[in-house]
Amino acid sequence: HHIPQLFLASGANALGDPAKFPWTMHFNPSYRTEAQIYAKYILREKPTAKLAVLYEDDDQGRDYLRGIKDVYGDKYDKMVVEASYATSDPTVDTQVITLQGSGAQVFFMGATARWSAQAIKKSSEIGWKAMRIVDLNSTSIAGTLRPAGLDNSIGLITAAAYKDQTSPQWKDDPDLAAWNKFLDKYMPTVDRKDGGILYGYSVAQTIVQVAGRAGREQTQ
User: Fold this and answer.
1) How many Å apart are CA 197 and CA 35, to the nearest integer?
2) What is the value of pTM for the model shown?
3) Over the stretch 121-167, which tens digit does the pLDDT of each residue have?
4) What does residue 23 show for φ and ψ, rounded to 5 degrees?
5) What angle (nearest 5°) sits at the alpha carbon of residue 197, between those of residues 196 and 199?
6) Distance CA 114, CA 30 (A)
7) Which residues have a Cβ under 8 Å from the Cβ of 214 and sit 6 or more positions away?
8) Are 145 and 153 in contact (CB under 8 A)?
9) By the 8 A CB rule, do 85 and 56 touch?
10) How far apart are CA 213 and CA 179, in angstroms?
11) Are residues 54 and 97 in contact, defined by beta-carbon separation less than 8 angstroms?
12) CA-CA distance, 165 to 192, in Å (whole number)?
């Protein structure tokens, strides 16, 4: 019906295809592009290290694999070991133990918050001293790192596409000041370390901007 489907909470390339879905637009950055960034970083910092990848068995997880393969190329099969999980799995403990057993020195979690928290905790409990990287879906202090244990989360590496509301870097930022003012008025009891709270606000404010610029004569 040519109704815009704006700002999906996804970075899956299957949905970010204007030829097939011209009315659909992501809010998240591309998972595949994000994985390419991590892969380039790993090869720069640890060029000979074996990489272990935990990924969700869906479009999100497979995009992370594709991004890594884009960068590793013909070195992928020799340098990368994979383990997937389904969202119906109660834990990823077995996958983490298997990946550690591969001898990998780098551990990338292409996972969502619940399973990243489990993987962070388990990798710490078994003494796996790998460089650990989590995707941007799993960076919330309240949603991922606190459930994993903050002590277990020390040293994690990630990328960020949004301002970190917990960072002193943004203490005088006017946009975050407006967000805090909004929460003071409408949601004073929420945990402001929960990345999902800022994410939802950011999507809503972007929709407000789009609707305002579309003018008064919007189609139904």
Assistant:
1) 24
2) 0.90
3) 999 999 999 999 999 999 999 999 999 999 999 999 998 888 889 89
4) -105, 5
5) 60
6) 21
7) none
8) yes
9) yes
10) 21
11) no
12) 8
Measured from the Cβ of residue 179, the count of other Cβ atoms closer than 10 Å reads: 19
What are the Cα distances from residue 48, in Å, to 102, 149, 161, 163, 198?
14, 30, 28, 33, 38
Cα separation of 83 and 90, whole Å? 15
Q: Write out pLDDT tens, residues 90-132.
A: 999 999 999 999 999 999 999 999 999 999 999 999 999 999 9
Q: At what angle do helices 195-214 and 174-186 cross, to 10 degrees?
A: 100
The encoded tokens of residue 3 equal: 């109704």
Give the closest residue to 104 by CA, choosing from 129, 135, 122, 121. 129
Question: Which token pair is 164?
Answer: 């970190």
Give the type of residue at 54.
L
Work out the end-to-end distance of the chain between its first and last CA atoms, rounded to an integer number of angstroms. Answer: 10
